[in-house]
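subagent[fold] <- orchestrator: predict structure for attached chain, return tokens only, no commentary.
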Amino acid sequence: MTLGRVREARNSRLLTTSAALQAAAALRAASDTPAAPPQPFVLQPPPREESRPANVMKIHVLALPHTVTNKKFTTCAFTQKVVKLCAMLHRRGHHVIHYGVEGSEVECTEHVSIASYAEWSQYYTHPGANFYEFMPTEKHKPYIDLYTQRVAAALKARAGTIAEGKNGTEIVAMAWGGPQRDAVRLALGQPDGTLSQYEVETGIGYAMPWSPWRVYESYAWMHLHLGMEKKLDGSMWYHCVIPNSFDLNDFTPKDKPGDDFLFMGRLNADKGINEAIQFAKDAGRKITIVGQGDPTPYMTGQTHVTYLPPASTEERRELLANAYAVLCPSWFIEPFCGVHMEAMLSGTPVITTDWGVFTETVLHGVTGYRCRTMEQFTWAAKNVDKLDRRATANWARANYSLERVALMYEEYFQSILNLKNKAGLYTPNPNRQQLDWLSRAVPATMLRRKDPFDALEWGIPPTPLDVPHISPPAPPKELSGWEADQQWERDWWGLDWTPKWDDEIRKQGTYFRLMGFPDNGDFGDKTVLDVGCGPVSTLTRTKHGFSRGVDPLAVSEATLKRYADAGIEFLNIKAEEMPVDRQFDEVWMYNTLQHVQDPHEILRRMIASTKSGTTMRIFEWIDLGICPGHPQNLTENMFDQHFPIAEWDRQTWNVGFLRGFGGTATEKYLAIIAVRR
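subagent[fold] -> orchestrator:
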């Protein structure tokens, strides 16, 4: 179909539609039956949700308030993002819930109508050749308030809750802002200001993003924002780039195009419409301009220019495939400019400026030309026939299809959901088999290519599209009780020497003074048992005979070697399980029992490892209470029952306070020096 036939078909369709509307109006006027009163709108309750496999994500997709989610709104790029996001993720098997106006046409698991079409149409309409009323005014406020409240209610009824343990397990996808953001905060906001699920801006092509979880349309747009926000130090781990996606069924490449250039987009000067008209004239060709806005200023005195209002999906198919080339000489930094990609998907080369998204998507000299001067644009317009339309189509279709881009959203969403694990950004995933989400098919160079261009001549071949979704890592075992406390201890100490270890040695100097250690640390040839020795036992800094240290804490090879080199027998086991196979001259314990599972069993085994004349030296914090890493609340009475005066000579039994020492809650300690009778 030529551009002229597209214009004829459009006029015929408009006439037919007009006649149908007039006929319907006449029938209504002739009817004597009064119209039934409109039924009040009722928000539908959520269906019973079945359990999902671990690799099936639950994604809430919020529609725009000022449109109906379907392909009729082709001129709203953000509406089409919602259409495509639902389709691509639903086709991948994920649980997709769409929240939009009655009459939406989306592929999803569940569509939730948040307003009737009648309610919506009181405030909005399809703009046709005019611009969208996307900025709320006083006129729109009642509907925006209604949208916000209903989306919040529907979302709250369907999102997993903290009480269910499902917080941080779902994605809320937003292609807009304003009332969408307000609805999410109303539905999922917590008292501390956080949200129970992740809000993700899924296609940022606008000026003021807000979420920590951001998908930009291009690297050009992301870097512009990072610069504007002065985030020059990076560390934006969850700001990523995922390009717009396209349904390949909407585009049909043709080897033989028509003779006219095409400009499709907003009829604004910053889109480069004046330049496009001039380049076409310089090249001696006609140009068709299609889009929203008033064409009059651009057509005056321009006999080579034809205007068409915004086109339907089928009309766009014909216009794009038949164009000699599509001109996109935008002045501003384009976040994406969907029409230039739609052209390449149709096999039609493009001529663009050399900034913004075009530097990432237009392969200069292969799928189009990027220009910076008027002379360059004119040359490109005269020589665009040198470009291979099949190469252009193959490049775009391999990299920007719904199926290809779906893999990128899958990877990104899963990386966010993995934050549910305590390891966060460092969560390992042994199930990973590939890292193709950022791979891009690239055709062979012009020198290597032969005619005709085909799939065998890829420099980098297309990414396989039939790969399964990478299974999320299994959630870590939830630790409780003593195991959780030991994990806390392991996290506090770490495996490698840090300033914390030096500080602990400093504290030990105070413990040992209160435990009656000799100033020179010389115990002669006495045998010593150190219970709860940790990785920096004082056994390594004192003189003694045979010695044994006991501690279940995970330690490094370097610590094991340090103990071995000092002649210390180190048992990396729970003190509740330490052997009672010999009696020692000295038994030590300092700052240990609050961390253990069974303090009474440990004291019993310590005493069983003594003999007449053995000195027991203990320093413990008491009356501390229970807190993370400290499951035991020690009391003086607990020790009193294990060291009766009849069996022990209590040389020191000192209850005191160490102000500002060790960060304890009570600062109260018990120091014991007792000799076995």
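orchestrator: received. Logging for downstream: The CA atoms of residues 216 and 224 lie 11 Å apart. The domain at 481-676 is CATH 3.40.50.150 (Rossmann fold).
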